Amino acid sequence: MPNYRYQCIKCEHDFQKLFSSHKKAAEELECPECGAAARRVFTVPNISTQRNSIDKKFADDPPEYREMHYHEKRGEWDKAAKAAEGVSDFAKRKFEQKARNNEEKKDKDN
User: Fold this and answer.
1) Which in 3, 40, 89, 91 has the greatest CB count within 10 A?
2) Which residues of the chain have pLDDT under 70?
3) Residue 58 has what pLDDT?
4) How far is CA 32 from the centre of its chain?
5) Domain extent listing, the chain
6) Beta-carbon-side half-sphere exposure of residue 103 (alpha carbons within 13 Å)
7) Residue 91: CB partners within 8 Å, gap ≥ 6?
8) pLDDT in tens, 70-93
9) Could you say which DSSP state residue 9 is in?
């Protein structure tokens, strides 16, 4: 069932109201605090998506590894190397080498 957020136009009280369907959701309601009109506030829907196996694996990583792996996955080698500082000297060297290789490839292409 959809849960909608409302805000009073007079006292600015925020509240939520549950409806049995989105078709029954009112654009305006009475504020439970002061009785004035309250308008529906549009918010981003809470959509749950299935994670792929790589994301699940990263979710189990300690926080200091998550940033490193995030940038690694995106091919942001300089950022991955910076995130690896103090976490893994091996990974830092690997990311720095990939960043150098990437720069050399860009220079060749230009």
Assistant:
1) 91
2) 1, 22, 44-61, 110
3) 56
4) 33
5) 3-41, 53-109
6) 8
7) 68, 80, 81, 84
8) 888 888 899 999 988 888 899 899
9) T
